[in-house]
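Sanity check

After download, print the first record. It should look like this:
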Amino acid sequence: MSAVTTAHDSVAVVTGAARGFGREIARRLVGRGHRVLITDVDADAVTATAAELGVTAVAADARLPADHARVAAAASALGPVGVWVNNAGVLRAGRVWEQQEQDVTLQVEVNLLGVVHGSRAAVGVMREHGGHLLNIASMSAHGPVPGLAVYAATKAAVLSFTTSLQGELDMARVPVRAHALCPDAADTALVRDEQASPDTAILFSQRSLLTPTAVADAAVALLDGRASCVGPRPPLRGDADRGRLPRLGLPVLARLRAQGDRRRLAGS
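Expected structure tokens:
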């Protein structure tokens, strides 16, 4: 397999980039000299962010394979695509048997199928010349997260998908490097929009939420290496270290949840 390249004048695609992690990742890719194309389902917001960053905007729904194909075509028209970041995601808190069916479906379709469809599009435009594919997973992929069971399941699937995809790429000698980033809870609209729900308490069990800039720094740093997965390690872990929970067992979550609930209420 030939060497993977991330030529800094190549095109970079970032999905779900109107705000949060995606916007900050796009900002750093611009700083590295990439021609950047950002997408979001919110057409007005992605257009405003693109104007702020000086990049190209495409309104697109991560759930739709046809939209990923359209984004891939638009990106390829700008030049060779060297980076593709599947960042689009949604979070809905609540006990799984009490959640609305549409919220369960939305999380699976955006968080998991959006990554699968986006990865397929990314490999399609990078397989001949090489590049880097970055999928945003979560620390919740590493252990139980009561109150966010569906969200955690989608992120665990993203992690498994990404590492399995890398095996397929290697066996087929396709020069694309797949990465998964697993950050802990961060101070983004994704989390703040659900803060009123007591089922988000575990997200606040760390002393402070990560900043989008810290996560973006870690995301872009992955593009300089061959690591398939980063996290949960500093600067992407909280003091709760939930990645160890499969060994510690579910009872420890009661203490972490109580701690997180106090912080959740204090910050609301």
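If your output differs, re-run the checksum step. Summary of this record's structure: The beta strands are 11-14, 35-40, 56-59, 81-86, 131-136, 176-181, 229-230.
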